[in-house]
Design a protein that fits this description.
By secondary structure, this protein is of the alpha+beta class. The chain has 18 helices and 38 strands. The strands form seven sheets. Strands 4, 5, 6, 12, 13, 14, 15, 16 and 17 form a nine-stranded mixed sheet that branches. Strands 1, 2, 8, 9, 10, 11, 18 and 19 form an eight-stranded mixed sheet that branches. Strands 29-30-31-28-22-32 form a six-stranded mixed sheet, sandwiched between helices. Helix 1 runs parallel beside helix 5 and helix 1 packs parallel to helix 9. Bound molecules: flavin-adenine dinucleotide. The site of flavin-adenine dinucleotide has 41 residues, from helix 1, strand 12, strand 17 and helix 9. Flavin-adenine dinucleotide binds next to helix 1, strand 12, strand 17 and helix 9.
């Protein structure tokens, strides 16, 4: 007889480390009526053969959060659930071969310190004292992570499973899920043991997540790589040292050579991420098998040769060891290498916790995040970097394969701000792509749409090599400055394909929208910024609300926010409303025309009433095409956004471009726009605006209408207002060196950490390095001097008055 229950609150599909941790955390949150279905034995997917490294290092704030949480959970898990585990905290040494790599390390040391971790930088001598077998040629320094270690992945999974079971959750093994359907607001999950109904479902199927996704009509953006490590026989010298020292060697990561080397008993384990990597199950002659439980790919030693030779030069005792075994297993990759944790896009009551490339070290944190998504609909930390909705409709298999291979081959690469990765490009092109390319545009994709970042002149160095810097200077700097100054003194035009746009229309639309945003819904003919808060008053998103009629709006938001924001709106719309809500992003295009000459340029090509004021919009005609022109400027100058049908983009661009020539019109890119907006203190999505902060902390109270009887987040914001905010959004000017402050740079005062930056850039109109950030409330007073830590060095900074640095009274856009 089947032991499958007929009903559960949550069904998790997949019993690897991540599925088990999700079950454990759901049960811990009190949701014990949860069932995990595993098609084979627990750990049958990637988990059983994982090397089990548990680093805390990440240059991403949210991923570091997850890994830090995992490491601390693993320390206490064994005794907590009474399941002893092999978990060795050995520390790790991450080797750096360049100045830029050390800068990266110093930045991570700063982030780690902020998260309560004591990471450190080592000199070559210090490395050798911790790792006596190390050769230090070509090294500039290293990062020491005392929390790094390794765990037995199977024991970890079993411990989490035991903990979950002990709390009342169920695990059914040898129970493959074969189908899913929606019935009466429930999921019905089919297995050979029968059907189970549930409120919520979680896809935790690892490298089979795409197959499971299909059961829900969801195309999971992922691919599968082959990943290997080599185990070596005992090395007598290492055994002798280890016994005498009474410890294992710290794990070594040579990130610039792209491998890790770990002591395994008295031998070694070498795991490279090879440039000449291999994808699997991507071609008709290599189909994905029905089942791959507890299986491996054949060894492929040729691919590893270069790495092996390099490792032997770094740690010569390795050269004396015999090779004992190669493990070559499937490892799933999302296009950016981060996992998918969160709502399954477009599918009700369904979640994803899958496609982990570091699923052992992330399982603990991922389970916590997943459980929060399911039980609360929101997470403690902003988890956009792992949110499945960061990908939309452009991630077909070709794209996923190209990106997966690129990321795998550059697993440890530094992600420099002016380096735009080349794989998977040109997914979505603006109709004027070729025109702006001919003007020198250097492109980067936003939600698949290629946008100009800056415009190069013919002799500019646009090589990859030139971009390998964290610094402000480079071939782009002069050009970005020229673009900013053209916008300041004459006019600039920026093509913005893919601006996300939702049409909201019908009776009750205004009232519904008013209940969702903190502020006032604009009157017809006007446009306004709107902030959406969650129940804790935290910033979910920002949209521009363009009111066409009393109950007819266009909601415009960031390109990358498309599925996230649409999902938020849909989630809060009940079935019985009379209005419609549609995603019409693909039908429209937008070009920004801004600068003091923009009125004169528009006057030559359009019939619009250009005296209409700031925050108004009107229908106009340019080059015989209808468009909606909106009197706003994210650049903080006189200007209009020209919204058109996609097919009219070229005609309108050509007309404006031609008319603009005698007025000094120049094309400008996203890099210039970022510099221009930061001078105005305008917030950027998922940097300055994230669920890590409340609307009040974010300095957005002027967008809160307290007189509204209710709106989402109001109660929490009222409470916060009464108690007073603990930290506050500030604009800082920084006496920076060669780099401006990146996201999450630490703010210091009197030797104490007092806040963090949320974005930073150089302002070419004001000639200063600017950072936006969150500062302890008592220090958030104009004139207050503090310090900002940028790549390990501290620089003086001043808190500026709560107004834009450029044109504080906003006279220029309102001119
Ligand atoms: C060689 C190698 C070394 C690695 N080393 C490390 C490391 O050192 N550190 C680290 O953090 N990560 C490492 N990884 C990655 C790590 O193994 C994975 O990220 C992790 O195991 C993923 O766990 P998971 O639970 O998401 O998926 P999996 O372990 O793959 O679990 C998914 C489960 O879903 C089940 N399933 C699939 N389809 C169905 C269905 N239809 N119905 C029911 N069940 C289903 C599968 O049987 C499987 O048990 C390594 C990977 C490889 C290949």
């Amino acid at each position: 007889m089947s032991n499958l229950p007929s009903h559960a609150r949550v069904v998790i599909i997949g019993g690897g480390a991540v599925g088990a941790s999700s079950l454990y955390h759901l049960a811990k949150a009190g949701w014990t009526d949860c069932v995990l279905l595993e098609k084979n034995e627990l750990t049958a997917g990637s988990t059983w053969h994982a090397a089990g490294n548990v680093p805390t290092f990440s240059s991403s704030w949210s991923i570091m959060n997850m890994q830090r949480y995992s490491a601390s959970l693993y320390r206490e898990l064994g005794p907590l659930v009474d399941y002893p585990m092999n978990y060795h905290v050995t520390g790790s040494i991450r080797l750096g071969h360049s100045r830029e790599r050390l800068q990266e390390f110093k930045r991570v040391v700063g982030m780690g310190r902020y998260q309560g971790m004591d990471l450190d930088i080592l000199t070559p001598e210090e490395m050798r004292s911790r790792y006596p077998f190390l050769e230090t040629h070509e090294l500039t320094g290293a990062l020491y992570d005392p929390y790094d270690g390794d765990i037995d992945p199977a024991q970890l999974t079993q411990a989490l499973a035991k903990g979950a079971r002990d709390m009342g959750a169920k695990i059914i093994r040898f129970c493959p899920v074969t189908a899913a359907r929606r019935e009466n607001d429930e999921w019905v999950i089919t297995t050979p043991q029968g059907e189970i109904r549930c409120e919520y479902v979680v896809n935790a199927a690892g490298y089979y997540a795409r197959e499971v996704g299909k059961m829900f009509g969801r195309d999971v953006p992922m691919m599968v790589m082959s990943h290997q490590y080599i185990l070596f026989d005992e090395i007598p010298e290492l055994a002798a040292w280890s016994k005498e020292a009474g410890r294992k060697l710290p794990l070594l990561r040579d990130v610039d050579s792209s491998y890790y080397l770990r002591q395994e008993k008295y031998g070694m384990n070498l795991g490279p991420y090879e440039r000449n990597c291999r994808a699997h199950w991507t071609t008709p002659d290599d189909p994905m098998p029905e089942d791959f439980s507890f299986q491996l790919f054949p060894d492929d030693l040729e691919r590893l040769e270069w790495y092996l030779n390099d490792a032997v030069e770094r740690v010569p005792i390795l050269g004396t060891a015999g090779l004992s075994r190669v493990i070559n297993g499937p490892i799933p990759y999302a296009p950016d290498g981060n996992p998918l944790i969160g709502p399954m896009p477009g599918v009700p009551n369904a979640f994803e916790a899958c496609v982990f490339t570091f699923g052992i070290c992330q399982a603990g944190g991922a389970g916590k995040v997943l459980a929060e998504w399911v039980t609360e609909g929101q997470t403690e930390w902003d988890m956009w970097s792992c949110d499945p909705r960061r990908y939309t409709d452009y991630t077909d298999q070709d794209y996923c394969i190209a990106k997966g291979k690129e990321i795998y081959g550059h697993e440890y690469a530094m992600h420099f701000p002016k380096h735009y990765w080349p794989a998977g490009r040109n997914r979505k092109l603006s109709p004027i792509h070729d025109r702006i390319a001919a003007l020198g545009a250097q492109f980067k994709p936003y939600n698949g749409w290629e946008r100009a970042m800056w415009y190069a002149k013919p002799d500019d160095d646009i090589s990859d090599t030139a971009t390998q810097t964290w610094g402000r200077e480079g071939p782009w700097a002069k050009r970005i400055e020229e673009e900013c100054l053209a916008v300041r003194d004459a006019a600039g035009i920026l093509d913005l394909p893919g601006f996300s746009r939702f049409r909201l229309k019908g009776e009750g639309a205004r009232e519904w929208l008013s209940g969702l945003i903190t502020g006032r819904v604009p009157k017809p003919g006007r446009i306004g910024l709107a902030y959406f808060a969650d129940d804790k008053g935290r910033i979910v998103t920002e949209m521009s609300v363009m009111a066409i009629e009393e109950d007819f709006f266009f909601l415009i938001t960031a390109a990358t926010a498309q599925w996230h924001d649409f999902g938020w709106l849909q989630k809060h719309r009940s079935a019985d409303v009379a209005f419609t809500l549609d995603d019409v992003t693909v039908n429209f295009a937008c070009q920004i025309l801004t600068g003091p000459k923009s009125r004169a340029i528009l006057a030559e090509v359009s019939d619009a009433d250009l005296s209409m004021g700031w925050l108004t919009h009107q229908t106009a005609e340019i080059a015989g095409r209808y468009c909606q022109i909106i009197r706003v400027s994210f650049a903080g100058e006189l200007g209009w956004e020209i919204h058109t049908k996609v097919e009219d983009t070229a005609a309108i661009f050509d007309a404006v471009w031609e008319a603009g020539q005698k007025h000094g019109l120049k094309p400008f890119g996203m890099e210039a726009l970022d510099s221009l907006r930061i001078e105005k203190g305008y917030r950027a999505w998922k940097g300055d605006l994230s669920t890590d902060y409340t609307v009040l902390q974010g300095g957005l109270e002027r967008f809160v209408d307290w007189s509204k009887p209710s709106f989402k987040g109001k109660a929490a914001l009222e409470r916060e207002k009464q108690q007073g905010v603990t930290k506050r959004f500030v604009t800082l000017t920084v006496d920076a060196g060669e780099c401006d402050a990146p996201y999450m740079s630490t703010l210091w005062s009197d030797g104490q950490v007092v806040g963090e930056t949320t974005s930073g850039n150089w302002g070419y109109r004001v000639g200063k390095s600017i950072a936006l950030g969150m500062l302890r409330a008592d220090l958030a007073v104009p004139g207050q001097e503090i310090e900002v830590e940028i790549f390990g060095d501290r620089f003086k900074a001043r808190v500026e008055p709560d107004q834009p640095l450029w044109d504080p009274s906003n006279e220029r856009p309102k001119a």
